[in-house]
């Protein structure tokens, strides 16, 4: 039961973080100033893609938790793979975006890592 609570919390947090990533896309792109239309499209695509990836991870873990036994082998793989992906994404953000002065991007590696920990704990308990 405790493991499922951790998994649901992690799923909700990373899903909301993904939505929060997508919503300000236009202002993020505008923050780059006068750049080419192609560059605006690429930044928009990448910004939305990361938000969708975070939402997908949250929905996947949620669905696996609600539809299977949490100690099921497939669920275990999903939880661990999702945690690993979040740690990789946190590392990428830490060495790139978190070096900027933008506070939400500085927080992003912490959020991703904390959710990865929730997923790992949820897969162990």
Give an account of the 3D structure.
The chain has 125 residues and is an all-alpha fold. It has one domain (2-124). 82% of the residues lie in helices and 0% in strands. The mean pLDDT is 93.
Quick recap:
With 125 residues, the chain is mainly alpha-helical. The protein has helices at 2-22, 25-30, 37-67, 73-95, 103-124. The longest helix is centred in the middle third of the chain and has 31 residues, at 37-67.
Helix-strand blueprint:
Elements: H1 2-22, H2 25-30, H3 37-67, H4 73-95, H5 103-124
Helix pairs in contact: 1-3, 1-5, 3-4, 4-5
Q: Helix amount, in percent?
A: over 70%
- Nearest-integer average pLDDT: 93
Instruction: Give me the count of strands.
Output: 0
Computed Rg = 16 Å
Individual helix count: 5
Shape: elongated
Poorly predicted runs of 5 or more residues: none
Largest sheet geometry:
none
* DSSP strand content: under 5%
Q: Helices and strands: which structural class?
A: mainly alpha
Secondary-structure element sequence?
HHHHH
Primary descriptors:
125 residues; 82% helix; mainly alpha
